[in-house]
Amino acid sequence: MLRGFYTAASGMLTMQRRQESLANNIANANTPGYKADQATVRAFPEMLLYQMGSKTVPTKQPKNLPIQNPIGSINTGVYVQEYVPNYGQGALRETDVSTDLALIDGVFPDETGSIFFTVQNENGEPRYTRNGNFTVDGQGYLVTTQGYYVLDQAGNPIQTNGMEFTVTPEGIVQVDGQNIPLGIAYSANANQLEKEGNGLFNGDAEPVPGGVTYTVQQGFLEQSNVDTVQTMTQMMEAYRSFEMNQRVLKAYDESLGKAVNEIGRIV
Question: One Pfam family name from the record (predicted)?
Answer without folding.
Answer: LlgE_F_G_D1
